[in-house]
Amino acid sequence: MKKPVPVESASARIDEKIIELGDWRGKMLAFVRALIHAADPEIVEEWKWMGTPVFSHGGIVCTAETYKNHVKLTFAKGAALPDPSGLFNSSLDGNVRRAIDIHEGDKVSEAALKTLIRAAVALNLKDKSKPKPRRAPAPGSRPAVGG
After folding, report:
1. Of the candidates 32, 42, 19, 43, which has an alpha carbon nearest to the alpha carbon of residue 106?
2. How far apart are CA 24 and CA 60, in angstroms?
3. Which residues contact 53 (CB under 8 A, 6 or more apart)?
4. pLDDT at 94
5. All residues at 6 or more sequence positions from 10 whose CB lies less than 8 Å from its CB, including other chains
6. Topology of domain 7-126, per CATH?
7. Nearest-10 crossing angle of helices 24-39, 110-129
8. What's the CA gap between 145 and 53, in Å, rounded?
9. Residues 37-79: pLDDT tens digits?
10. At 1, is the pLDDT very low, low, confident or very high (cuts 50, 70, 90)?
């Protein structure tokens, strides 16, 4: 099992990624990163899946991937989030995730993105506070003897 990248190292890697991109994608990644932290100062930065910035609080809130023609913010539980501003424009057919593809020149509503981040964190924390359902014993199995 791979060890997670320490938070300080993950943040440094995201800094490096922004510099390495050196174009509008780096600027956009820096911009959305700042908005994510403004929306929730308790967000933790992680570096997963061979180079993907991940923003978490009580679970994954979103990832920030950079591609040749766009920056993609993928919300882990996006299908369960309200999106009254219509930010989600990608991965709309899935049952769990939703994404925002940002192309060069696109304007991102700061207020709408912050609202979405806060809703994602609230959903993560709500899910964390729920007790896990206990599974019924398999038919024919004997109950565990504890002591």
Report:
1. 32
2. 25
3. 10, 13, 14, 17, 29, 33, 45, 46, 47, 63, 64, 65
4. 85
5. 45, 46, 47, 53, 54
6. Aspartate Aminotransferase, domain 1 (3.90.1150)
7. 50
8. 45
9. 999 999 999 999 888 999 999 999 999 999 999 999 999 999 9
10. very low
